[in-house]
């Protein structure tokens, strides 16, 4: 096996591993946060400066409950956006400019058909 082919296999393997890690972090964020927290604790105990720096880098960010902490992928934090089909009325505010006010609509429940 030539050196160029070996380097190519290593690079492709690293790319596949990195993309699988990114996909796994998107699909199971709590599990990967636990894994990274455990790995960062283990690395922080080492004497090596590089290991401690890597441990600090792997520490998961704490979610604060607002959308500014970077956890906006699921849409669960922060206020819900109004539906696009909701009727809106315009009412002038104190400055005289019209502002859009969304009106609430009642919910209508229908029984399931069997």
Can you tell me about this structure?
The chain has 114 residues and is mostly helical. Helices cover 45% and strands 9% of the residues. The chain contains three helices and two strands; from the N terminus they run H-H-H-E-E. It has a two-stranded antiparallel sheet. The radius of gyration is 25 Å and the shape is elongated. The N and C termini lie far apart (65 Å).
Characterize this entry briefly:
With 114 residues, this protein is mostly helical.
Termini separation: 65 Å
Contiguous uncertain segments of 5+ residues? none
- As a whole number of angstroms, the C-alpha radius of gyration is 25 Å
Q: In DSSP terms, counting alpha (H) and pi (I) runs of 4 or more, how many helices?
A: 3
Strand order of the largest sheet: 1-2
Shape: elongated
Please report which band the strand proportion falls in: under 5%, 5-15%, 15-25%, 25-35%, 35-45% or over 45%: 5-15%
Overall pLDDT score: 77
The beta-strand count equals 2
Structural class, by secondary structure, is mainly alpha
Q: Fraction of residues in helices?
A: 40-55%
H/E element string? HHHEE
Largest sheet features: 2 strands, antiparallel
């Amino acid at each position: 096996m030539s050196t160029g082919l070996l380097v190519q296999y290593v690079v492709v393997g690293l790319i596949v591993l990195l993309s699988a890690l990114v996909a796994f972090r998107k699909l199971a964020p709590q599990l990967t946060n636990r894994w990274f927290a455990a790995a960062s604790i283990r690395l922080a105990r080492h004497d090596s400066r590089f290991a401690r720096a890597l441990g600090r880098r792997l520490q998961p960010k704490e979610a604060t409950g607002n959308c500014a902490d970077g956890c906006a992928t699921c849409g669960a934090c922060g206020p819900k956006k109004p539906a696009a089909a909701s009727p809106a009325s315009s009412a002038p505010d104190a400055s005289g400019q019209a502002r859009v006010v969304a009106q609430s609509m009642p919910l209508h429940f229908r029984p399931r058909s069997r």
